[in-house]
Design brief:
The strands form two sheets. Strands 6-2-1-7-8-10-9 form a seven-stranded mixed beta sheet. It is α/β, with parallel strands linked by helices.
């Protein structure tokens, strides 16, 4: 006869989500927006409540006010805040998520080859999450240059606010389903199969991708400048309209003359910049900066 043991973790997991008052919700909503710019709308209150409750139970904290004090408590609070952000900012993504945007990128890079390359191409993936987008940018650049018989002179920088996401991006290991958009020969060229069934980015490609922490509210402090390509997709939807325009204006200034800015379709309406020209392709929302390449 097997001796029965109670499972406190099982009981813990079945506890209901802690109720959150409207005042508490607005307090957390304000904190998140003030620190990151991200807006949690009323209809996503359950999302915030669930993620806060989960972390609070892990810490043995039973009150939203106590946890609020904990994450705003100086340097100690900064560590906990970073851990919480990993839960609140995670998003599902995959390689070549919006294929039309990468088609535009490929054509753009091919057009750049009509002139001698004065310097390595520089790419920036803003809100790179776990790395699928920056590696997609790297694959596109590598293929264009390889097909032209040129060396892989380019570098990709991915930035995100989530340390956990950045850790995954740097590891470069992905579930096979994330690569469903890739043609078989491309997947075989840039990835190797791992014993657990995952796929790992080749060292050659990984060496050209760098990922770093950056809060988009601090874009003015970012060292990026003279970028040939900037991708900012599936990020702006989390911000207020005025802040979206503020972010885009800052990104436009970081483009090199002739550089390409690609935004998620439908993420901003009516935005214009005096130095940018819209790309004539109704499938995408993209701009090139005025000036010679």
């Amino acid at each position: 006869m097997t001796e029965r043991h109670d499972n406190p973790l099982g009981a813990w997991a079945l506890q209901p989500v802690m109720e959150m008052s409207n005042d508490e919700f607005h307090r957390w909503q304000t904190l998140l927006e003030d620190r990151t710019g991200v807006v949690i709308q009323e209809q996503r209150k359950a999302f915030l409540q669930t993620n806060l409750s989960s972390r609070m139970r892990e810490l043995g904290v039973s009150d939203y006010a106590d946890y609020y004090r904990q994450v705003t408590d100086g340097p100690r609070g900064a560590v906990e805040w970073s851990l919480l952000l990993d839960r609140l900012t995670v998003q599902e993504t995959r390689f070549f998520r919006h294929r039309a945007s990468f088609d535009v990128l490929e054509r753009y890079l091919q057009s750049r080859l009509q002139q001698p390359l004065a310097k390595p191409w520089e790419f920036w993936s803003v809100g790179c999450s776990s790395g699928e987008e920056p590696y997609s940018l790297a694959i596109t650049a590598a293929q264009v240059l390889e097909n032209a018989g040129l060396p892989a002179h380019f570098a990709v920088t991915g930035t995100d606010i989530s340390l956990n996401a950045l850790s995954k991006a740097r590891e470069g290991r992905f579930a096979a389903r994330k690569l469903e958009q890739l043609e078989t020969h491309i997947a075989q060229r840039y990835f190797s199969a791992e014993p657990d069934g995952s796929l790992k980015v080749s060292p050659e490609l990984a060496s050209q991708v760098c990922c770093a922490k950056l809060n988009v509210l601090e874009l003015a402090k970012a060292p990026m400048a003279g970028m040939d390509v900037i991708f900012c997709q599936n990020l702006l939807i989390y911000f207020r309209r005025w802040r979206r325009r503020e972010i885009l204006n800052c990104l436009a200034e970081r483009l090199a003359p002739g550089g390409l800015l690609v935004i998620g379709v439908g993420e901003v309406a009516g935005w214009q910049h005096p130095d940018l020209i819209p790309v004539a392709d109704e499938r995408v929302l993209a701009f090139t900066r005025k000036g010679k390449l």
